[in-house]
Structures are given as C-alpha cells and as structure tokens.
Amino acid sequence: MNFPRQHDLHKRRMGRNFGVGIVLLGFVVIVFGLTVVKVTRGEPMQAFDHVSRPELTEPVN
Amino acid sequence: MSDASIDTVVQRGEGSFGDYFALMKPRVMSLVVFTAMVGLLVAPVSVHPFVGFCSVLFIAIGAGASGALNMWWDADIDVIMRRTSSRPIPAGKVAPDEALALGVALSGFAVVMLGLAANWAAAGLLAFTIFFYAVVYTMWLKRSTPQNIVIGGAAGAFPPMIGWVVATGSVSIEAILMFALIFVWTPPHFWALALFMKSDYDNAGVPMLTVTHGRRTTRRHIWAYTLLLAALAIGMGMTSIGGPFYLAVAVVLNAMFVLGAWKILRRDEADAETDGYAVEKSFFRLSLIYLFLHFGALWVEAILRSFGYGGWPA
C-alpha cells in the first residue's frame, strides 16, 4: 500500500500545522503586547517580599 | 486495502484547520465580537486599545469554546437536522473527543487570559456564560423544555455585559439593559426560524414551542415578545448610553419589527405554506439586522459623545 506522494491528507495536515503555528505566534505577540501595555502604564509591580518596603505602606495622616 | 478505504480511514479525525475553526461557530462569534466590543466602547471608562482588543478576542474565544462543547454534546441530533448535518462532527471531519478537548481547553484559556488582561470580574462572568451555554442550555434545557431558548438566550446576552465589566469592573443598569435587549430578542428570532424550519426540530425530538404548543401559540409568543422588546429597545434610548440618534434608529427598527410580528400573528399555516413562509423568513432576516443596527447605533452615540455631541443634555 502506497500513499500518493501528495495525498489530500498531507495537504490537510500541512494546513493544520500552519494554522496552529500562526495561532501560537499570535499568542506570543498578544502576551508581549499586554506585558508592554501593563508595564508602561505603571500598574503596581511590587508586593510584599519578606523585606520591609516603606514605599508600599499607606501614609498615615 | 484499496485507495477508497484509505480515504475513508484518513478522513475521520483528520479535519482541516477550518473544520476545527467551524466548531467554534464563527457566525455566532461575529455577533459576540460586535456586541462585546460595543459594550466595552459605550462604557464611561476608557480602556487601552490593545487591552480592549485582547479582551474582545478572549470573550470571542470563550464563546467559540462553548460552541465547540455544544457541538460535542449535540452531535447525535445535529446529524438528524438538515440545518446542522454538515457541521464538523456529524460530517465525520472531527472526532467528538477532539471537540470536547478543544472546548474545555479553550474555555480555560479564555477565562484565565481575560482575567489577566482585564479583570477577574469580567473573567468570572465569561466563565459563567460558558457554563450557562454548555451545561444549563445545551445539556439541560434544550431537550427538556419548550422554554429552552428563552432561558438559554441569556448565554448569548452576556457578551455586551462582559465588555462593559472589562471597562468598568462592575455591572450597572446600562449593562443590564444591553443584556436584556439580546435576551428578549432571542425568542422571536429563534421561533421565527422554528416556524419555517418545519420538521427539523420535530425529527430531532427537541421540544421547541412549535412542537410542544403548536404554531398558533408560537405566533402569539413572537408577538408578545416583540412588543416587550420594542418597549425595552426604545426605553434604552433614554439612558446614559442612548441619545437622539439611537432613539431614531430604535423607533424605525422597532416599528418594522412590530409590523413583521403582527403579520406573523395574523397568518395561519395555510397562508404560510402558500408563499413558502416568506413573511417568517423576512422577519428572521430582519431580526439579524435589527440587533446589529441597535448595537451599531449605541456605538455611534458613543463616538458622537466623544466629540461633544450625542447623548442627552445633562
């Protein structure tokens, strides 16, 4: 039993692999873009880390 | 093994990328994308364009995932109904287990990513929407009550509310009204379809109102829901997301919609058979345009407001 050199199955797999590749690439771009947006907007990026951080405490009036 | 049998073997579970995409119900997703985007844009809080784009994308993926779960569960009746027999699972292009895996994986992905990109209130609402569509509607209501699409319609009504929550972080009256617009629109939209898709639901044993209570009752229900919808749609024009432009669009569209429902009410099956359900089909087509134009008008109002026009004077 021999598959023809270019069976329809190969074309479908090729298209599917190509599609998954594009989707994964898109995901990388999205995560990178979201990271850039969130970092540049200066959202809180510090948290308690077992070390005293006076800048994180609310000022007492 | 002959060439023909090779083809049969490789066909099953070897779908193309497009077949997997079709599992996500792209046409339903287009409506979800549009309504979620409008919900996000009409909110009084601005969102970074990239965060907004990603949020709408994740809402759409969540909706697509619930579509895949719906196709996995309903494969047995999809093969019977003419309208759904060419879907990827009944057509033998995608295996049911693959549809289930895709649905579950994309549901988790969409919820987590929306939480990270926007906020966890929106992510929670998306998770509930997926649960509502896949479990409450598909697995429970669809085959057990003629009120299936009335209650199940809530799943399709959540996207603009999720869009609003992405921007504001909470639910408010405007978000509830946008939800209500789609919720009340869904029954007349689907019952019109059920009237001219005559035997499909009957053959599949899905208890649509046309099957359980008859066509006369269905026509009366379409009329009642359309009146309620008109009041709701026009009333929304008076809120903070409405304005003169939206109100004008809503009045015209609802006059057309009420007229269509009136014609459906006045007909009997003999009239409908004579002209091949022309009135019901045109009402169904109008219902699609109706929703797009209402949300489009809300969007236009938001754009006008950003230029200092639109909306009602304070």
TrEMBL record, chain A:
It comes from the Bacteria. The chain crosses the membrane at residues 20-39. Keywords: Membrane, Transmembrane, Transmembrane helix. This is Cytochrome C oxidase assembly protein. It comes from Poseidonocella pacifica.
TrEMBL record, chain B:
GO terms for biological process: heme O biosynthetic process. It is found in: Cell membrane. Pathway: Porphyrin-containing compound metabolism; heme O biosynthesis; heme O from protoheme: step 1/1. It is an enzyme of class 2 (transferase). The chain crosses the membrane at residues 28-44, 50-73, 94-114, 120-141, 148-167, 173-196, 222-239, 245-262, 283-304. It catalyses: heme b + (2E,6E)-farnesyl diphosphate + H2O = Fe(II)-heme o + diphosphate. InterPro entries: Protohaem_IX_farnesylTrfase (IPR006369), UbiA_prenyltransferase (IPR000537), UbiA_prenylTrfase_CS (IPR030470), UbiA_sf (IPR044878). PROSITE patterns: UBIA. Its main location: membrane. The keyword Transport does not apply. Keywords: Cell membrane, Heme biosynthesis, Membrane, Transferase, Transmembrane, Transmembrane helix. The keyword Disulfide bond does not apply. It is a multi-pass membrane protein. Pfam families: UbiA. GO terms for cellular component: plasma membrane. NCBIfam families: cyoE_ctaB, PRK04375.1-2. Carbon 2 of the heme B porphyrin ring is defined according to the Fischer nomenclature. Belongs to the UbiA prenyltransferase family. Protoheme IX farnesyltransferase subfamily. Interacts with CtaA. This is Protoheme IX farnesyltransferase.
